[in-house]
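At your convenience, could you comment on the folded chain following this short note?
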Amino acid sequence: MEAAFEPHASCFFSKAPRTSLAKALLALMAGTVSLVAAGPVEDLDAWLKLPRASRPALESQAFSSIGLTAPQSTQARALVWAERLAYVKASGAAEWSGKKLVNAEKLEMPFDYRIYGSKPAAGYDLYISMHGGGDAEKAVNDEQWQNQIGLYQPKGIYLAPRAPTDAWNMWHKDHIDGFFDRIIQLCVANLGANPNRVYVMGYSAGGDGTYQMAPRMADRWAAAAMMAGYPNNASPINLRGIGFTMHVGGLDASYGRNTICVTYGKAIQALQDADPGFYKYDVQVHAGKPHWMDLEDKVALDWTFNFTRRPHPAKVVWLQDTTVGTNSFPSTGAVKAVPGHPTQFRFYWLGLAAKTGGPKQARLAAAITGQQVAIAEANIDSLTISLNDSLLDLDRNVTVTWKGKTVFAGPVARTIGDLYRTANDRGDPDYVYPAVLKVLASGQVSLAPRKAALPAGSPQGAGRYARGRAWGWATRAGGLVSDAEGRLRPE
C-alpha cells in the first residue's frame, strides 16, 4: 500500500571551507593539506556562485558525476534548489512586477491575484482560476476575466490569469502548459506558495479547461474544481492521485453539461473501483440552477482544501494527453476534430526519453515495491525513471522489470548532474531527482555519465576525488562501466 506523502521540509547546511582547484593540487603535491576538505558539494557550491552565463559546462565538471552519499545528496539538492528558486525570481522579475507572462511565441498571459488569510508555515495554497468566455470578442473575454478575479475567496493565493487567445479552446491550447508551469514557479519564488497545495479551477470555458488541464498536468495539482464546463474527449485516467470535483447547474442543458458531468463521474468511479483508495471525485448538480449557479459552486473549494499533492506515488498511471479534442463549440458549421500534439513529457517519476511527439500517445503504468521498479504497461520502447530516496533506497541495488522481464539490476548512483538537470527541467522542489535511468524494452539501460561513489569521510575517497578533479575519471557506475553511447556493461 502506498504511504501517505509528507511535505518536504527545507533544510539549511553549513558550508565546509573550500580550496580552489589549483591551490588544492599544490597542497596535495606538497602534502600540506588534509585530503578530506575537498568534495563535490563544496565544488558545486562554488560553481553555482558563478553567473550562469560564466559557468563552465556542468558535464565538464568532475563533481557533477561523482556518486554521492545520501547526506551529500541532500545538501546538494538544497543548494541546487535554492539557486533555481533565485534564478526563477530574477529572470521573471519583469513578468511578475508587470503581472504579465510572455512566452517564446510572444503570446501574453496577464494575471492578477489576491491573498486571503495568513501564510501557513509550509507556504500559501495557490488557486489558479480560469475565466469563461471563449470564441468571442476580446472585450467579452476581458470582462469575464475581470469577473473571475473577484469570484472566489479561498484561503491562500487566488490567481486569475487572462487567456492568451480568444478561442473556444483557449484554456487547453498547447501553450497553456508552459504558462501554468511558469506561474506556479513564480508564485513559489515570489510569494512562498506551497507546491504541494496548488489547485486548478475554472468556470464555463474555464471549466472546459479544467477538464483538460487537470489530467494533463495532474502531477502539478493537489486537486481540481470544474464549474459549468464540458470535457470534450478528456480522459480521467491521469486523475489517480488528485481530487476532482464537478459542479453544474441542473438546468444547464447546453451541450449536455448537466448530464455529461454525471457520466464523467461514473467513468472515474469505474477507475476507483479497479484501484481502491485512489481517483477521489465529487459530482454536484445544483437543482434549479442554469449556467450561472449563484455561487452555490463555491463549496468546491471546501472539498479541494482536503487534498495535498503526493509527488512521489508508489504507482504511476499515465496517458500522455494531447491538445487533440473535438470542437463542440464551432462558430459555424459542423463539429470538427482539432489537430494537436503532446504537451507533457514527464509525469511524476516517469518520462519519455525525448521531448518530441511520437506517432501515438504514450501510455504507461509502473509501480515501485521495495527495490523493484516494475513497468507493467508501456506502448513505447524507451522511457526514463527518476529516482530518489523517498521512492527506494539508493544505497542498495535497484531492479527494473519491463512487463515481467528484468532489464536492469544493479547500483544506481546519486549525482549532482541529475539533481541539477531535473531541477531545471521540472522547476519543482519535489521533482529534483538525484538519479535518472533511461530504460529500453530491449534491456539496455543507460545512466548519465558518472564516477564511482567515494567512501564517505575517508582519506582514500578524498584523495581519489582530488586526483579525479585534476586528471579526469574513468566513466563508471558501481560495478558497471559506460560505453561511448552511455550504455552500461559489466566492468
